[in-house]
Amino acid sequence: YHWWEKEDIYAFDGHGFLYFPQAVHLYAPFAWQQWPEDLHEFNQRPFTETLRSHFRLRAGEAFFRVCTVAFFAWALFQLAGLINGRDGPPNSWLVISLLSLPAMVTGAANGQFNTHLAAAVILAAVSIARQQWNWATFWLVLAVIIKPHGVIALLLFGALYPKLWWRLPIGMIAFILISFIHYDPGYVIAQWKDFIRMLTVSS
């Protein structure tokens, strides 16, 4: 809602929205109702009360968490398929899922992007192992959109695999262009400036 209403999305206090501007597009499909202005007071209220007054918001949150678990489970399934081979049954998927369950549950409960970032990096590694370089580029760029920490994986894999050397710059051009999915380019540029200012404040 803030994005499309041209409101500032950064708070400059080390809290709130700490991602690249493009990340708003990842949560937009789940923003079924605008958040109340006083989040602290809202979070202090009983859940049943907020469910009655903000049902669409709570439903969007729940759906976001379901998609979080599904995305991470699918990434683990792809990893298990790589371990077992294309023709073998993904027997290791259950073991990997059980080992990853604490992190998956914590990420889904918090509603943060850490689980999405882990899934994107896993899928990038699987794609590299299968020599699917275009898909690897897609997942690495998506990892950066999900969370700035994704830059670490992008630089690491980009340095290790020459097949990514020309693909990743193209992917990063797309990364920049995605942020301009907005009717006012001037607003997008202003948010990029605020993002850089937010980084200096948070650090």
Structure description:
This protein has 203 residues and is mainly alpha-helical. It is 67% helix and 0% strand. Helix 6 packs antiparallel against helix 7 (133-146). The longest helix has 30 residues, at 55-84. It is globular. The chain starts with 23 loop residues before the first helix and ends with a helix.
Descriptive terms for the model:
203 residues, mainly alpha, 67% helix, 0% strand
What is the overall number of helices?
A: 10
The number of distinct β-strands equals 0
Q: Would you list the SSEs in sequence order as H and E?
A: HHHHHHHHHH
Runs in which pLDDT lies below 50 for 5 or more consecutive residues are none
Distance between the termini: 27 Å
Assign an overall shape.
globular
Overall radius of gyration: 19 Å
* Biggest sheet architecture: none
What is the assembly state of the chains in this entry? single chain
Specify the structural class. Answer: mainly alpha
Which band does the percent of strand residues land in? under 5%
* Averaged pLDDT: 85
The share of residues in helices is 55-70%
